[in-house]
Predict the 3D structure of the following.
Amino acid sequence: MIGIYVISGIMVVTAFLTAAFYVNDHRVVATITKTVSSLGFMLIAFIALSKNFDNLLNLKYGMVMLTGLMLCFVGDVFLMIKELFTDRTANLYLLLGVGSFALAQILFAIRFIMYADRFIYWLIPIVLIAPAILLLSHKFNIMKLEKTAAGLIAYSVIIGFTTICTLNLLIVNPSARSVALFVALSSFMLSDTALCYTYYGRSITLRRVLNYVVMLFYYAATILLAYSILL
């Protein structure tokens, strides 16, 4: 457990440094610190999984979470590569990154639905909150959505659905794990919504500040997802 806490602490520090390096346009150094953070949540997941070999139910849950986190890691790699380009190639890596995260979120959603005793369908409209915020921001000129933003809008629907799956789980099967999952996915959704503003926001100041929101909430989410294997 102490090892997990140490790794989590290192991740918070490197996430903050990553945001600072991106804000100051030190993209290569930011890539290094972000890699350290992303390897951190993978290491936590492996440690947590290693402690569940004697519990088949938790082992199955852990394998699903590990697979999803691996997809998140792949998404991180694509987004890191994206930051090193300034032309159309960057848009390709952006979509590949978003696609990897979308697959992870779909995998998580399926697992959370299977984990719950029932599904509360009136929660579904909550899915529209994140895309509505993005579209209203475009309408009121807070951000300028480009063609590639269509993929981000679709992704915001997917992560919104995964988030309500954790809310459903929290209501139907309340436990320490369901609390951790709901907080994790809420942080994930906040981070990814802020990420859209860092890419397409019109205010330079807002974009710079939101870099810290993106990194800190994203890694808080992945730490909790990895740690949930132990709960």
Notes: Residues 127 and 161 are 5 Å apart (CA to CA). The chain is about 80% helix and 0% strand.
